[in-house]
Amino acid sequence: MTIVLAIAVTTACDKDEKKPAGTGTPPVVTTPEEGSGTATIAYADETMTVTGVCGSSDAFGYRLVTIQDTTVPTRTLSIGLNVIDLPMNTTVYMLTTSSENGATQAFMEFTNVQNSQITGWSSDLNSGNVTFVVNGDEITCNFTNIPLQPYEFYNVGDSLNVGLVTGSMTFYHE
For 158, phi and psi rounded to 5 degrees? Predict the structure, then answer.
């Protein structure tokens, strides 16, 4: 019985069999890999972390690279480049305010919206630099103790202190 079954399977999978057009293996379609990242902001004696998917999009003349938290989707860390295209080579960006517009300038924001309360921090002219390291289609950015200024209009209590953000992100060219 085992021999008959093996012959039936072998015959059913005959390589010389003519197949109708359109039944072959479909072409491989590649899409950009999904990026990921994590960042923690420390202020006063508290911390807040964003961990999740990382990707980029263009908006209002900027290229935004954002980590969106998987648990609290309204918690994000964003780096806005003052150009539309992602760099093709490793590039250092000086962090400034969002109103600056040089090609090697960027801004960083850490934002949390929960229970109708906005809490956030953003870069200014004293925040330092971030480097986007390009390796083929992959771009990584690691940052340590970047000082961000509180949103004075929205933040309350301890969140009115300067925040220090540390983290890393990996994302891909589209």
Answer: -60, -25
User: pLDDT tens, 81-97?
Assistant: 988 899 999 999 999 98
Closest by Cα among 76, 107, 106, 78 to 91 = 106
Give residue 123's pLDDT.
Answer: 96
By the 10 Å C-beta count (0-12 exposed, 13-18 middle, 19+ buried), 169 is classed as buried
Q: Tokens for 147?
A: 């000082």
Tokens of 52: 């999740």
How many other C-beta atoms can be found within 10 angstroms of the C-beta atom of residue 118?
A: 13
Structure letter (DSSP) for residue 160: G
Beta strands in 25-116 (DSSP E): 35-43, 46-59, 62-69, 75-81, 91-95, 105-114
**Contact assessment for residue 105 and residue 96, using Cβ atoms and an 8 Å cutoff:** yes
Q: Are 22 and 147 in contact (CB under 8 A)?
A: no
For the cut 60, the answer to whether the pLDDT of residue 14 exceeds it is no
Report whether pLDDT(2) > 60.
no
Does this model's pTM top 0.90? no
Q: List the beta strands (DSSP E) in 85-137.
A: 91-95, 105-114, 117-122, 129-135
